[in-house]
Amino acid sequence: MRFMLLGFLALPLSLLTHFSVCAEELEIAFSYDIPPFVMNSGTDGLELEIVRKALSYRGHSFRVQQYSYKQLEGAVARLGLDAAAGVRETDDGTYYSDNFIGFENYAITKKGSGIVLKGIEDLKGKNIITWQNAHRDLGRDFASLFSPDVKAPYMEKYHELPVQRDQVSLFWRKDKTVLIIDKSIFIWFTKQLSGQIDVTDEVVYHEIFPIPTEFQVNFKSRKIRDDFNEGLTHIRRTGVCEQIFDKYLK
Question: For residue 48, how many C-alpha atoms fall within 13 Å in the half-sphere facing its CB?
Answer without folding.
Answer: 25
